[in-house]
Every structure is written in structure tokens, then in C-alpha cells.
Design brief:
The structure is a homodimer. Chain A is an alpha/beta fold. Chain A is built from ten helices and twelve strands. In chain A, the strands form three sheets. Chain A has an eight-stranded mixed sheet with strand order 1-4-8-5-9-10-11-12, with helices on both faces. In chain A, strand 2 and strand 3 form a beta hairpin. The longest helix of chain A is centred in the last third of the chain and has 22 residues. At the A-B interface, helix 3, helix 4, helix 5, helix 6 and helix 7 of A face helix 3, helix 4, helix 5, helix 6 and helix 7 of B.
């Protein structure tokens, strides 16, 4: 029952066969970095794959050697909603990422130089394909569950469509079946911010020994704005002034300005997130639209899905609002799928999917008991 | 009844007495550029002042010598909701603007150089004070109505508080009694975009013979995002692709990207909006909070108002939502003020206050008949 205190360790698997991408391009070889938690049972029936969101990575649970907790550590671990005493949890960094999987900061074997802007555009489908190769490598015939929030939830949907027999449960949290025009517009402003930074050098900033910190910080500030709810920003910051009174200049005056600027700078400097990765991830989000190959009919797209679904949304999430989850639920019900849906009361906006919330945790735990039964049936 | 086809002509009035500003600074002298429409009646009882929003100017009605229609031409003119056959309408460019009133592009008399970033920070109170001087200059004892949308609506509120006996009617459209933390955060991201443009030169871009076009375009793109509703963007652009299919690159792919980029570039180049003005206007918005001087109690702030009020909001406006107008209405009702309120059904978001809408026009016209009666009573 006591939590493991050993630091998590990442593993890298190298795939030396080319990956055919949705764009028509090819990735000649690639590495996937991943972490695992818990033990794979004898017949490999208790494996869960967790898919990360835009700025996430493979370190989802526990504490790494730098003392950094995983991004979903509140919900995944021994005794937690996804109980690693029971499940074997896998999380990999997406291709195109900057945390160890092959991406823009990797060496292009064809040129011997860093990929930078030459790294091919990725899609959810490409990610799912690479994760499926990881599944085979790990000797897992079928995931007992796929779990993801936001962009991760989109990957879960893509998995359910592309490899219907490879997952038993699909847990789709704070996601949408495709981006709205407004979502795309926010991404485009963020991309413009990065690409118009003079330090961007058309994506070849590493070769120029620099990074487009200003543009990346701006993009992140804007991202944060869409992750938080208006109400929560009001509760958290209100109109509180840093110095207690108006300064009548263009310095940081309101607490909310200070917070956003800090978040932007942390992301661009301390976290050293790669700008090309940010661009790639937003583009994959824009492109995600599984219905587009099925006459723009999401019900048809999900007709081949075999998994049981849990869909979760949060009331104050205006990035991917509950209405967007309703679209997914409706399309699943059109197919008489086994679907549970929970709309969680929260003031935390899109960020809610990462934060403590008793109702959310209860829903998650309860559903995972169902998943555990399905794992045990196989495990017996 | 036939519409005037002569181009509108702007006038400039120069005030050679210093203006004491809320910041404690002083503007040694200033010009206000303004346009007027219709005729002032014998006892000057039919005068209406219109206050513009962030990027607006004094050209509110008719068509100027460049053929450009005024920004509220749909609602102000002969036979229109604000009927210039009946009313004498005045609109001035705010101080700190870049369309002819003294602002950052003007010459600082103390240095003989362009003000640029040395132009003092403006507040709604300062604007109202300067507009009150214009009122005196025009020989108008009392405006029969003050009218404004968005930032213009905030100025109307400030007028009602600062010069209660100088207006009979206050028409406050798509406004808020103060910005929320989220509103401030959007402004801050826009300011960062401008100030981190290398062509900004700490605001001295005119001296460097350049303009921070990229940053200004980004700020405007972001502004547009908050003016439009998610629904309207969906209806207008959806996920439509410019080239009909995905390009798998970082060019302009979706129609919504194309639209936003066009709007941003138009604002920064063709319209040649001054970046320092943009910064000043957003700051004045952030600072607007009349309740702050009344123990954060809007009811107390509005206790001294004597005007009759019309407050209008639009259902899909998420920049200044109907709830923000409710705050104003509630504070007025706390004071037993004469207040009418209309919540207009619209998909157009914040922009709705500028666009054709039968219900909105009906409300506006009806209310203006009340205003006309009050003008006539005096006029008789």
C-alpha cells in the first residue's frame, strides 16, 4: 500500500522499419521513449496505454530522478484511480515530441543534422500507428484500456477506430471529435507568434544556437488562457494588483498578467519546450477529424469501434466544452455502443482534467473497477 | 428624406490649457478631432455624443472623402436608429488615438519629437474630461444622450458618474463595469505580441522608420478571436480548407486562418493603426473600474448618476457577456434608476453591436423616440 519512492525510469525502443505517415511522407526510423508502472500480468491482459496532451510527455506517474511528479500523478499510481498495483500502465512521448521520442530535435539520418522544420507533420493516426508498434514490442495483444485527456482523448478515439480489436475500453476525457474554427484560430495565433519571432529562423533555430523564446512564451500564454475558465481566473486572480495600486505604465500590474508571463517564460526557458514540436502538436490537433473519411459522419467513423467507452467532460471547459463530448456520446449511441458519460462540475476549465476533483475521481475509480473486472476475466 | 451624399468632414479643436490626468501626469495641450452630423437646434437640446471602441475613431456615420463609411453607419444617419434629421450627433477620436486627436504619433511640444511611448497613459476618466471640454466648446449645456458600445459604453458609464447633470440618457451597449481577469489576460497577450516585436524599439518605432507590423497583426488576430463567437466562426468558416485538401505544412490551410491573417495584416498595414495607441487603449480598458473608488460597490458608484439608461447586450458575446450587463442593470436598479435593458439574440459575438440586427435596431429606434421627446421638450 505504500507508494513507491524509487524514481521512474524511462525506456527507449527503437523501430528501424520506416513509418508511413498520413501525409504520404515516411519516417525512416524512430525511437519511442516510454515509462511503465506496475506489473504486466501473465497473459498481458492488464495493460493500459495513457496518451498525453499537447505539452505532455511519457512521465505520467510517480516521481522521476529530477524529483518531478508525473503529469497525471494524482490519478495514476498505487491505490489511485488507475491503480498501478492492479494495472500495467504504459505512457510514451508522441513522435514529433521533444522529450526523447524522435522529433524535430532529433538527428535526421538522411542529412546527419537536426531535423528542425524538416520533421514531417504528424497526425493522430501516425501516433496511434507508432503506439501500436510499441504494443507489439511489449507483447500486449490487447490493451484493457486506452486513456487520454484533451489531445490524448483524441488519440484514444483514433485507436478505437483504427485498431478496434486492440482495446477493450476507451476513456476519452475533455476531448472533441474535431477542432472548431475557434480552436483552430487560437492555434493559428499561437503558431504565428512562434513563427514571427526573429529567433525562429524558419525553424532552424538550433542551427543558429538560439530558440524563439518570446514567441513560444506568447503561444503558451495564449494556451493557458484557453485552458482556464473565466470564472476560475476571476477567483484566482480577480483584478488584484501586484503593487497594490495602478502604476500607469506597461509593466506587469495585474496578478493575472504576472501569472501568465511566468507560465510563458517557464515553458520557453526552464522547460525548454521545442518550438517546432509545439507547431507540430497544434497542427495534429487541427487535422484531427476522423469523421472526414466517413462522409463527415462521426457515427459512421465510430461504427467499427468495439471498445466500451467512458466519456468525461467538465462544465467550465470552454476549449472542449461538454457539448463537444456530447457529439462523441451521440455518435457512439447511434452505434449502440456501451458508453458511460460523466459531466463533471468544475470551475477549472480545460485544466480540470489534470486537477483533483472528488466527483471526477469517483467516476474514474468506479469505471476502472469495470476495467479491472475485464482484466481479471482474462487474467484468470 | 434622401441620404446626404456629401463626404463627411472632420474638424479639429485645439485645447491650449493643460489636461490633468488620472495618472497624475499632465497633457500640456491637445487636439480633438471630431465629426458632426445633423443640426444643433436653437437651444442645443438635441446633441448626442457617440463614444468609440478600441480601434474606432471619429468617423462614425456617413461616408468620408475616401469613400469609407462610418463605423456605425448602419445605425446613425438620416432616418436611421439615431436619426441625424432629428439629432445633432458628435463623435470625437479619443486622446491617445491615431486618427487626428493628440496621441502617440503627435509631436510632444516639450521635446519637439513624436511622443511615441512617452505619451501618458489615458483612462476613461481622462477621455470623458476631454470630451466635456469639447461639449463646452460646442455650446452644449447637456447632451440629450451619450451612446457607446464596448469601450465606448464604458465611457458612457464614466460620463454618467463624473458629469451626472450633463446627460439625459446613457446608452451602454455590449459593455462591462470592469474587465475580468480573462479580459485583462487577453489584452496582456496582445500587448506582449506588440512589445516583443523587434520592430517595436521600446515604442520608438517611428524614430526608427518602422512599425511593429507583425506584433500588431498578432494582437489584432487575437482581438478578432474574442470579438467573434465560436458558433459564428463555425458558421462562417467551419473547417473549410483553402485548397480543398490538407497540405501538411505550416502555410495557411483553413479558411479561418486566412481570414484572421488578413484581418491582422490589414489592421497593421493598410489601416496603419499605431501600435502605441493600441497599447494605450487596452490599458485604459484594463484600468476601467469605476466601482474601485466606491468601496468596489458599483451601486455606490452609480448612485450619483442622474441619466436614464438603456443597457444592451448580445447573447453570444463572450468578451462582455450579458451577465456583465446584468451587473450594470442591477447596480442601476439598486439606485431606483430609470433603466431599460435588452438582451439581443445574436450569433455574432461582441461584433454584434456593429452589425445589422432587426431586434437590436427596433430596441434602439424605440428608445431613441424617448430620447427625441426629451430633446423636443427642451427644444420647444
Amino acid at each position: 500500500m505504500c507508494e513507491q519512492i524509487q524514481p521512474t525510469q524511462a525506456e527507449i525502443f527503437s523501430f528501424e522499419t520506416p513509418l508511413e505517415l498520413a501525409s504520404g511522407n515516411q519516417l525512416p526510423r524512430y525511437d519511442l521513449i516510454y515509462e511503465t508502472y506496475g506489473e504486466l500480468n501473465a497473459d498481458a491482459s492488464n495493460a493500459i496505454l495513457v496518451c498525453h496532451a499537447l505539452s505532455g510527455d511519457h512521465h505520467v506517474s510517480g516521481v522521476d530522478s529530477d524529483g518531478k511528479p508525473g503529469w497525471w500523478n494524482g490519478y495514476i499510481g498505487p491505490g489511485k484511480a488507475i491503480d498501478t498495483n492492479e494495472f500495467f500502465v504504459v505512457c510514451s512521448n508522441n513522435l514529433g515530441g521533444c522529450r526523447g521520442s524522435t522529433g524535430p530535435t532529433s538527428i535526421n539520418p538522411e542529412t546527419g543534422k537536426v531535423y528542425g522544420p524538416d520533421f514531417p507533420i504528424m497526425t493522430c493516426r501516425d501516433w496511434v500507428q507508432s503506439q501500436n508498434a510499441l504494443r507489439e514490442h511489449l507483447g500486449i495483444e490487447q490493451w484493457v484500456a486506452l486513456v487520454g485527456g484533451s489531445m490524448g482523448g483524441m488519440q484514444v478515439l483514433q485507436w478505437a477506430i483504427d485498431y478496434p480489436e486492440k482495446l477493450k475500453h476507451a476513456i476519452v476525457i475533455a476531448a472533441a471529435p474535431k477542432l472548431s474554427a475557434q480552436n483552430i484560430a487560437f492555434n493559428e495565433v499561437a503558431r504565428r507568434a512562434i513563427m514571427s519571432d526573429p529567433e525562429f529562423h524558419e525553424g532552424r533555430f538550433i542551427e543558429h544556437n538560439t530558440t524563439p523564446k518570446g514567441g513560444l512564451a506568447l503561444a503558451r500564454m495564449l494556451g493557458h488562457l484557453t485552458y482556464l475558465s473565466d470564472d476560475m481566473m476571476g477567483i484566482k486572480f480577480g483584478r488584484e494588483l501586484r503593487e497594490g495600486k495602478l502604476q500607469y505604465n506597461f509593466g506587469v500590474e495585474f496578478q493575472v498578467e504576472s501569472y501568465l508571463r511566468y507560465q510563458g517564460e517557464k515553458f520557453a526557458t526552464k522547460m525548454n519546450f521545442d518550438a517546432n514540436t509545439y507547431l507540430l502538436m497544434t497542427k495534429a490537433l487541427d487535422y484531427f477529424d476522423p469523421a472526414s473519411e466517413f462522409e463527415d459522419d462521426l457515427s459512421k467513423a465510430l461504427a467499427q469501434a468495439q471498445a466500451k467507452f467512458l466519456v468525461v467532460s467538465f462544465t467550465s471547459d470552454w476549449r472542449f466544452s461538454p457539448e463537444r463530448s456530447h457529439e462523441i456520446v451521440k455518435a457512439l449511441l447511434d452505434n449502440d455502443a456501451d458508453v458511460s458519460y460523466a459531466e463533471i462540475q468544475s470551475e477549472h476549465g480545460h485544466d480540470a482534467f489534470l486537477l483533483p476533483n472528488a466527483h471526477y475521481e469517483g467516476v474514474f475509480r468506479n469505471y476502472m473497477q469495470r476495467v479491472a473486472q475485464d482484466a481479471q476475466v482474462n487474467g484468470d
